[in-house]
Amino acid sequence: MIDVVLNLFMLLLDGLSVVFGGRRRFDFRETVASESGGFALGVERRKSQPYLEIRLRTRLGTGREHYRLTLDEYERLVGDHAAGTAFAAECRNGSHDDRRFVTGRRRRG
Question: Does the predicted TM-score (pTM) go above 0.70?
Answer without folding.
Answer: no
